[in-house]
Amino acid sequence: MTIYSKITAAGQYVPQRVVTNNELAAIMDTTDDWIQSHTGIVTRHFAMDDENTSALATQVAQQLLTKSGLSASAIDLIIVTTITPDALTPATACLVQANIGADNAFAFDMSAACAGFTFGLSTADKFIRSGQYQNVMVISAEVNSKMMDFKDRTAAVFFGDGAGGVLMQPTSHPAENSILAEKLQTQGNATVIHSGRVQPIKNISADNYPQTDAFYQAGREVFQFATTVVPEQMKTLLNTAEVSPEDLQYVICHQANLRIIEQIAAKLALPMAKFPHNVQKFGNTSSAGVAMALAGVFDQLTGPVLLTAFGGGLAYGSILIKK
Fold first, then answer.
1. Is 202 exposed, middle or buried (0-12, 13-18, 19+ CB in 10 A)?
2. I need a labelling partner for 48 at 20 to 30 A (CA). Which of 4, 179, 188, 197 fits?
3. CA distance 262 to 227
4. Helix, strand or coil, per DSSP, at residue 308
5. Segment 274-299, tens digit of pLDDT
6. Measured between alpha carbons, how far is 183 from 198 in angstroms, rounded to an integer?
7. Are 140 and 80 within 8 A, CB to CB?
8. 149-155 average pLDDT score
9. Residue 161 pLDDT more than 90?
10. One of 45, 194, 254, 277 is an active-site residue; which one?
11. Quick one: where's region ACP-binding (predicted)?
């Protein structure tokens, strides 16, 4: 019997603290007008005090349990995609497992930068198709604010914190299959986007102590990549799946920048009405952006949806799904 995977629930969460453009303009050389005209972003949410990445992911996990009616003990696997984990170890996914009491699950993190949710969905799909796993959570969670250099106006104004995710379960009915086609790619490039670099020691000294770099992106190169290479991948996937852009109910892009989403819409010759977006309210939430936007329209889904994300790596992935 062939086993397929289906997405059965979706959720999203953002911290309470809202940060306006004017608040950032008070601490760096920028303005609300510049931020809105270049990015479309009006506000973003920041996690504060003890609310770390695992806390955001746990909120989504609890939503998925509530919506599905499952007990935590029924969860087999938890995948958390993040580039802003609570720590290098233990995995943020393991902290979520402990927080919800999913004693029968195993859990791990994935790092594919802003493409994390598409990579996570693909991975969960393979676990379910193996026939060994019944209930899998894929949660993308980011606290980008803790990795920002707030003197770097080219990056800090873009980012916000948030989490989104889905529950995936098996089905033997092809008509219920949620993952219709996929294309995941990487280009080994350590310079365009990087975060959390840790340098080796130079000598043996009592003064040695680990230090990490803040997030960095070369904005023009990211924009060029996102508006040229990424749309071509999307078109290739649609051609392979024999789905025309006009047949898509929605296209959910990485919520990096409203101007990038507008450019991708133009490249596909589709109206912006087909592109759900939350970047104005939440900013760039890295891997969580696509998951959050999907959760926002999940109850409305009736047709095929193309998910596309891109980020450090350079990693980029497109997945054609349906509910």
1. exposed
2. 197
3. 9
4. strand
5. 999 999 999 999 999 999 999 999 99
6. 31
7. yes
8. 91
9. yes
10. 254
11. 255-259
The SS3 assignment for 252 reads strand
45 is known as an active-site residue: no
CB atoms within 10 A of CB 173: 9
For strands 136-143 and 77-81, give the pairing: parallel
- The question of whether 94 is a catalytic residue gets the answer no
What is the distance between the alpha carbons of residues 226 and 230, in angstroms, rounded to a whole number?
A: 5
21, 144, 177, 284: which is the annotated catalytic residue?
284
- Catalytic, 114? Answer yes
- Residue 153 pLDDT class (50, 70, 90 cuts): confident
- Quick one: residue 254, left, alpha or beta (phi over 0 = left, psi -120 to 50 = alpha)? beta
What's the pTM?
Answer: 0.97
CA distances, 249 to each of 164, 227, 277 (Å): 20, 21, 14
279 with 255: CB under 8 angstroms? yes
| Residues 148, 43: Cα–Cα separation, whole Å | 16
Integer Cα distance of 54 and 94 in angstroms:
9
Check if the beta carbon of residue 19 is closer than 8 Å to that of residue 71. Answer: no
Name the active-site residue from 114, 177, 194, 257.
114
> Which residue reads 């003990």 in tokens?
73
| Eight-class DSSP state of 246 | G
CA dihedral 322, 307, 293, 138 (to 10 degrees): 80
Per-residue pLDDT at 106 exceeds 90: yes
Structure tokens at 23: 């608040």
For 260, the enclosing helix (H) or strand (E) is helix 258-267
